[in-house]
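Q&A log
Question type: sequence-to-structure
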Amino acid sequence: MSSIRLGLRANARQFSLLVGITGLVGAAAGLERSVLPLVGEEEFGIASRTAILAFVATFGAAKAAANLFSGPLAERSARKRVLVLGWLLVLPVGPIVALAPSWTTIVAANALLGAGQGLAWSMTIVMKIDLVGPARRGLALGLNEAAGYLGVAVAAFATGAAASAVSPRTAVWVGMAGVSALGLLASLVPARDTSAHVAHEQAAHGAARAASLRHALGASVRAPVLRACSQAGFVNNLNDAVLWGLVPLYLAARGATAAEIGLAAGLYPAVWGLGQVATGWASDHLGRKPLVVAGMLVQGAALALLAAGGGDLASALVASVLLGLGTALAYPTLIAAVSDVVSPRERAPAVGVYRFWRDAGFVAGAVAVGLVADAAGAQAAIGVTAALTALSGVWVAAVRFATSASRG
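Response status: OK
Response body:
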């Protein structure tokens, strides 16, 4: 145990490897972000926005469930085993998309992608927090989420550009096959488990057992800070479902090309990803609450601009930048805030439960916004989402957070 040291510098090699793996996890989702809705509309003739958004709902439901069980799995088994299992679930997605005879098959493949993402991304988060300890938790999460969403952005840009030369489906499945193979290899060979780092940190807090899933779920509802973080994460991913599944169709209806849609779809996670290094660091010094509140309000304003623009590309690009900035302020900060109020042994279940509530927002967003879009149009659906996002920020503003940015 004496050889175990916490800190970013002391664990730089493993931390950097996990940053790279997170980038690959993000790329796996980003490959679908700009062009998969077009596959449903153009190749399979799906007219209903609710039906097209089913792939986002399926992804979100599977990812939320995987997040929920990732913590208990990590406590019973090695974190590395859960990481590898996540990539094994993603591996067949590329071939399934390539050979899919129907939109329903592609929707089903997204269940595998969501489950794999839930396990793999949860583990890269928990393992990084394990390595760095409490003092620089916000920075660690900023670096983690930056890598993941830069991966999303690069993949979204690439598939949008590739779809101008090859079919959108080909752009997705070829990229997915390469990313999943590389991610699995990196997780299998050089990645090391971090359970010993958890035990080392827990020693400073006294003996403790890992929280049960039931306890972690109950705490997410009872504890004011955890409850506020859970609802903010839920709304954050509700509006992300709109950006992912509805906005490509919204822009295409105004005549945007696949490359232009890829630019809009990629700009948002690019700003999000780049911004999180600075916002994660800032949350360690300024506290979590101000950044979360500002982030949710900026996202709400950006969505209002997107709705007001009516699908105009220029306003959509400005809205994408603002959405990226708002999400960068809130996203890593919320996970850090959850980690602040639990012990090291409770961390994996607490983070998994938070990510469960957060990714349930994908499901709610895809279903509810799809129904609103079919009934009243995409512009109205985006406007409703803008209002919900702003109200979420008001909720967080009304909750008292700890004055210290970190628990440790």
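Response note: The chain has one domain: 12-397.
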